[in-house]
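Hey all, sorry for the wall of text incoming. These are the two entities for the joint prediction.
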Amino acid sequence: MKRKPKDEILDEREVSLLDLVDNVLNRGVVLTGEILLGVADVDLVYVRLAAILCAADKLFPPPSEK
Amino acid sequence: MIYVYALVSKLPPGDTLISIRAGKLVAAAARVDARPEPAEAGLRAHDAIVRRLWDAADSVLPVRFGAVFANEAAARAAISAQLEPLQEALELVRGCAQMTLRVAAEEPAEPKDGGPGTRYLRARARAQKAPEIDALRPTLALLVRAERSERKSGVVSVFHLVPRDQTTAYREAVANFRAIVSGPFPPYAFAPEELA
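and here's what came out:
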């Protein structure tokens, strides 16, 4: 059977982990991290990290199709 | 401490979980020493127990990870406080599985008319409707009993409540659509939020 492109990027186990987090924790497909660096209660740096966990080629059409 | 996994009509015969009754609902719970950590092992353990209940019963309303109560009375009080919506939710999911579709969000061109209030309400209405899957709706109409959706960072997750014996038909119906489909799952997305 021909593997679909999404399977090559994200295998079944990773998809199941994503769904596990999404279902059980309801944090969605986006895992967000926040880092706050501060000195003496003054916030200096605020870093927001967001990573989309999904098979990008399945969601977003490749450039040639546009 | 009491940890609640799911709400059911009754526990399967011989199940080792504690049952805490409130109205027509039974909370399937266990005694724990500490609040479980949200690490992969803990999430899988939670999900495994919810799935075990779901395999054995017609109607299971999963509770999200981390619903810990001081004792049985506190758990019963939390459920009783929203008994009506919980009982309705348990009826809604009866005999159904959750199927999840993920599609890329399409942001429409900013409309020029209307003030900020109108634009806000339009964006909100759009967030709840997931027009990205409109092309699928005629095909799915007979398979889907309820829908919820979430929009985060360019991805729309659409959760469909599908009769358990129709999940294969659902997968066939969406096979050629540009979306990631997963499931069947216990109907996590249809449980009211924040029991704890």
